[in-house]
Each structure stands twice: as C-alpha cells, then as structure tokens.
Amino acid sequence: MKELADIKDVLEFYQMLGFEKLPIELKDFRKTDKINIKTVLTSNENTPIKNYYLKEEALIELRKEIGDCKRCKLSKKRLNIVFGEGNPEAKLMFIGEAPGREEDEQGRPFVGEAGMVLTRLIEKMGFKRTDVYIANIVKCRPPMNRDPEPDEIEACKVFVEKQIEIINPRVIMSLGRISTMTLSGINKLKITAIRGKFFYFKDIPVMPTFHPAYLMRNPKDKWLTWNDAQKVLNKLAEK
Predict the structure, then answer these.
(1) CATH number at residue 96
(2) Which of 47, 116, 166, 225 has a Cα at 20 to 30 A from 212?
(3) pLDDT (tens digit, 9 = 90+) per residue, 91-124?
(4) Residues 137, 183: Cα–Cα separation, whole Å
(5) CB burial class (10 A; 0-12, 13-18, 19+) of residue 114?
(6) Full strand arrangement of the beta sheet holding 85-86
(7) Residue 93, φ and ψ in degrees, nearest 5
(8) How many CA atoms lie within 13 A of 39 on its CB side?
(9) H helices within 67-185, ranges in order?
C-alpha cells in the first residue's frame, strides 16, 4: 500500500508541474532510484542532461528544492508558487517576468489574457504549449503586478537558471524588460531598443521581445514580435 501511495504522490506532483504524461511505465518507476538535483547538475556541468526522464526528474527535484519558499518578501502574499510548465526537452523556452493574478491563483504561467496572447504566438510559430517550456524570472506574484524588485529577482533567478540548465533549449525568447535584463545582465535597458537582436545566455541564443501584456496595450506592435519569432524559427532551423 505504501508503494501505491508513493506512486499517487508522484502522479499528483507531475500534474501540479503541468506535465501531461509519464515518460516511463509505473513498473519501471518502481525500479528507478530517486535522482538528486544537486548530483545531476554538478556531476558534469559541461554535459547537458539528455534523457527525457532525467530532465523531468531534475525539474521535480528543483521544485522540491524551492519548497514553500520564503527567500524574499513576495512569499507573504502569494497564493501559489508558479514554477513553470511544458516539455522538459523543449527546443524553445519562453521566459517572462513574474506571475499575474490568474497565474497566482492557478499556479501556472501565462494562463490569463496575456497568456492567451502568448499561446497564439506559440501556435502561430507551429508549436503547441506542450511542445515548449514556459517559466518566469520570479516565481511569485508581486503585489498589484508591479515590477519585481532587484532583491526579489536576485533571490529567485538561480531557479530559472537551473531550469534553463536542465532543459537546455536551443533558443530562448525573453518576454519583456525584466526577463531580458536578468538574462543579459544589462541594467536599465529599453526593450524597444534591444528587441529583435540575439544575445547569448551561457551559449544559448536569446531573442528579446515584447511581453504579451505590452502587446495587449499596444497591439500595433504585434508585427514586431512576429518578426522576432521568425528570427527564432530561422535560428532553430540552423541546428
């Protein structure tokens, strides 16, 4: 009975993280040793994790490492930690700034109106949400949807960096100023000036573009984001 309870806990945890399938059968799971995220990530930093199951397990262990996070003041009013979701072997990763109200309520990234804009972009690029991976720089909602503050970003960015390391996407699209600033290391940048030009985060090309919430307020700029997306598709086609 304990074995069944353990399996139930694992299945519920997978569902909470947004995974829609298990890469192995349960009989294989019973024979598999638990994977330590620190062992996986530090055993050989120059060798990306390639196995689907190892990536999935590493993400689960990372979520456990975050725990009921109290590393910054955003924990005081949040409803849910919004870890991220999608394909652990995604070729394309989208990284936003922080959860909004709907995301905080559901514990999933980009599920509100801005999420609908992002989903349409993903589909227009020829993917489904389950094909890509979606995360944010900050995992908890800032009050009144304000910009995350430097100490909040500093407390949380190690986790998105580990997500990137685990997934090892071919290309990242950074959505908005905060995401682009954090991944590029450039302070006080203007997204209007830097968007559309690739930079690199640990050898991974990153395409900065407008945040979907900005596009809701400025729909005339959607064509610019589509231009950025086409550059991403061209970059993916190179490999």
Answers:
(1) 3.40.470.10
(2) 166
(3) 999 999 999 999 999 999 999 999 999 999 999 9
(4) 9
(5) buried
(6) 85-86, 133-136, 92-96, 171-175, 204-209, 199-201
(7) -125, 135
(8) 7
(9) 101-106, 113-124, 150-167, 177-184
